[in-house]
Design goal:
The chain has 13 helices and 12 strands. By secondary structure, it is of the alpha/beta class. It has 2 domains: about 180 residues, NAD(P)-binding Rossmann-like Domain (Rossmann fold); about 160 residues, Dihydrodipicolinate Reductase, domain 2 (2-Layer Sandwich), CATH 3.30.360.10. The protein is globular. The two termini are about 40 Å apart. About 45% of the residues are buried.
């Protein structure tokens, strides 16, 4: 089965995903009967390109990573007019004759309203394309509405990379916990702040610890989404919407971030055998409402979340039938997030049922 893909956003995650597709092409073909071509790429700074026969991905990566040139230089006259924007790329993908048409939405999070990612997802669904995304915005701001649109169209809307990179948080709930009610969850969900707090309790300086995360590409050049708690709030909203059927946005989450003053608090907590961690949590109230909070919390030394150091993340889910379930990620990087997109692509493939063979006609 062939999948044609359009990549909306071609930053670190999008480029790593493109390379991962090539690196795992034989496994995808042998294990899942899946081949793929990237036929469209749209970027904010380097324009867009569409080629029905498939794009030279390494050439596109070289243009973006050199920060020079225009993706349109890859375009051939036989491909028709150059695409105008991301929505044009989606329209062209819809005209593909591939077995699967998948939009890979990998733009950065807009904490104001989740745009333009939400519009990209909806445009793709309206065009008859499946969607996989690592962007937290669609699930954090509009999960219920988008999922209803996808279901009505018989399409997939998947976002495993939105929380804890490639660790199967949403797949766990969707595929392995039928008839279980999630009553609450709590976790350490932001790698940048966990690295900083771990470093602070060891006596490091806030600015130096943050700079390391920026140098590794984990934190953005403007790290306010991480240290002010917005990234964790978006993940909390997405988890609550999916696992607890909430109808919230990141702005519904009570939020407190960290800063240079957190150093003294972290060291004082450690001196008392405790640990300071930025904890994201959501709890269902007796009246059915949900309280969601992101804030630094002093945890007992024997708490699972206390032991998370560096970029480690964990999520503890409290259920009615299975008690507490813990999911840990001891390390995270671009490859894990890119893998989540790959995993979702395979899930889309698995959902396509082979046509049922017609029964043989009996001869009289």
């Amino acid at each position: 089965m062939r999948a044609d893909l359009a990549l909306i956003g071609f930053g670190h995650v999008g480029r790593r995903f493109a390379r991962l597709l090539a690196e795992r092409s034989e496994r995808l073909a042998d294990g899942h009967d899946l081949s793929s071509r990237i036929v469209g790429i749209s970027t904010r700074r380097h324009g867009a390109v569409a080629r029905a026969e498939g794009i030279d991905v390494e050439r596109a990566i070289a243009i973006v990573e050199s920060d020079r040139g225009w993706l349109g230089s890859i375009h051939e006259p036989s491909d028709g007019p150059e695409p105008a924007d991301s929505f044009d790329i989606i329209k062209r993908l819809a005209g593909s004759d591939a077995d699967l048409r998948v939009v890979v939405e990998a733009t950065t999070l807009d904490i104001g309203a989740g745009q333009p990612a939400i519009d990209h997802v909806r445009a793709a669904l309206r065009a008859g394309c499946h969607v996989v995304t690592a962007n937290k915005g669609p699930a954090a701001f509009a999960y219920a509405a988008i999922q209803a649109e996808a279901s009505a169209a018989g399409l997939s809307f998947l976002f495993e990379g939105a929380v804890m990179d490639g660790v199967p948080v949403f797949n766990l709930a969707r595929d392995t916990l039928p008839a279980v009610e999630v009553r609450s969850f709590r976790g350490v969900l932001n790698s940048t702040t966990n690295h900083i707090l771990s470093a602070l309790e060891d006596g490091d300086e806030f600015g130096r610890a943050l700079a390391r995360m920026q140098a590794e590409g984990i934190a953005e050049s403007d790290p306010s989404l991480d240290i002010d708690g917005w990234d964790a709030a978006a993940k909390t909203s997405a988890l609550a919407n999916v696992l607890m059927d909430a109808r919230m946005t990141p702005h519904s989450v009570h939020r407190t971030g960290i800063g240079p003053a957190s150093g003294a608090l972290a060291r004082d907590a450690r001196a008392q055998g405790r640990r300071l961690r930025l904890v994201a949590s959501a709890t269902r109230r007796a009246d059915g409402g949900i309280d969601a909070v992101v804030a630094p919390v002093e945890l007992p030394g024997d708490d699972l979340l206390s032991g998370l150091r560096g970029q480690a993340n964990a999520l503890i889910i409290a259920t009615d039938l299975l008690g507490e379930i813990a999911i840990c990620q001891l390390d995270g990087c671009l490859t894990e997030t890119a893998y989540a997109l790959l995993s979702d692509l395979v899930t889309v493939r698995k959902r396509q049922q082979a046509p049922r063979a017609k029964p043989a006609r009996r001869t009289p």
